[in-house]
Design a protein that fits this description.
The chain is α/β, with parallel strands linked by helices. Helices cover 49% and strands 20% of the residues. Strands 1-2-4-5-6-7-8-9 form an eight-stranded mixed beta barrel, surrounded by four helices. The protein binds ligand C2E and calcium ion (3 copies). This is Diguanylate cyclase.
């Protein structure tokens, strides 16, 4: 028994060690990924379930690693945040997404806002406003076609500074949405002070098994948004049952695998032909 205890311990160490090694090697590679053009943006539609049209897109980052293939943002975004690499990566993305969306608008392929996820780091860096303004000027994209998604925890952390930066961005015409709403629960008392256009209801409330028990929470989020003059997007919609229930609660705009998965640019031309007004 003494031996088996020892064994378990060494297996655990091995696992922890393997994890540590992968992290270190990914961090090293992440430092070169931008210069090597290994990042790609995919776009997931936001869908108006009454009109049956695409009303927006969310831009999501993918890393095409030369040896490991596509690496999920769940794995590399935390490393990018810890190392600060998320700042230049997001700045690259702002330029890329604005030019892409300007192209879709100019060619009359689609005229919808595209959102980009913002890490807390972006509000500490101090140059977010300038970079957003520059990306809009360079691309000639109208500001209301760009949206920034922030989480509750970002808005709450250093709230005064974040709200000041968001207000300037809003005055520029850029849209702001509160992502993963309902999972932070600390913000309710200050929600009216954060300048946002849209609340995105987190996937945990939408998941099938839980959805009926979460009905009261969902309908209250919708009521709060309505009272504060905000729009609502339900995330992680996968089934017709979820759509029916959300509709019955008055939720109109939805995002999830049922309507469309995140897609690379070359698939979106066809998507828009089939799915726009
Ligand atoms: P998020 O911002 O909450 O994005 C939604 C995630 O849910 C995406 O995962 C999306 O592919 C996934 N999703 C969408 N519909 C469904 C569905 O119906 N069912 C299920 N199970 N999942 C669905 P993804 O692309 O892997 O991104 C994960 C997270 O990584 C994002 O969560 C976001 O927090 C972060 N992330 C992704 N791209 C960026 C980025 O460019 N910058 C920053 N800062 N974070 C990013
Ligand atoms: Ca998001
Ligand atoms: Ca989300
Ligand atoms: Ca999330």
């Amino acid at each position: 028994s003494k031996d088996s205890g020892k064994n378990k311990c060494s297996v655990f160490d091995l696992e922890a060690n393997r994890h540590q090694l992968r992290r270190m090697s990914l961090e090293k590679d992440l430092r070169k990924a931008l210069a090597r053009s290994e990042f790609m943006v995919v776009y997931q539609p936001k869908w108006d379930s009454y009109m049956n049209v695409t009303v927006g897109l969310e831009a999501l980052l993918r890393w095409r690693h030369p040896e490991h293939g596509i690496i999920s943002p769940a794995e590399f975004i935390p490393i990018a945040e810890e190392t600060g690499l998320i700042v230049p990566i997001t700045y690259w993305m702002l330029h890329d997404v604005c030019s892409q969306n300007r192209f879709w608008h100019k060619e009359e392929i689609a005229s919808v806002p595209v959102s980009i996820n913002m890490s807390a780091r972006m509000f500490e860096d101090g140059s977010l406003y300038d970079v957003v303004a520059e990306a809009l000027t360079c691309s000639e994209l109208e500001p209301h076609f760009l949206e920034l998604e922030i989480t509750e925890s970002i808005a709450m952390h250093n709230m005064k500074e974040t709200v000041a930066q968001l207000s300037r961005l809003r005055m520029l015409g850029v849209r702001v949405s509160l992502d993963d709403f309902g999972t932070g629960f600390s913000s309710l008392g200050n929600l009216d002070e954060i300048p946002v256009n849209t609340l995105k209801i987190d996937q945990v409330f939408i998941r099938n098994s839980k959805m009926h028990s979460k009905k009261a929470i969902i309908s209250n989020i919708i009521a709060i948004a309505t009272h504060l003059n905000m729009e609502v997007v339900a995330e992680g919609v996968e089934t017709p049952e979820q759509i029916e229930l959300l509709k019955s609660l008055g939720c109109r705009v939805m995002q999830g695998y049922y309507y469309g998965r995140p897609m690379p640019v070359h698939e979106l031309g066809e998507w828009f032909i089939a799915n726009t007004a």
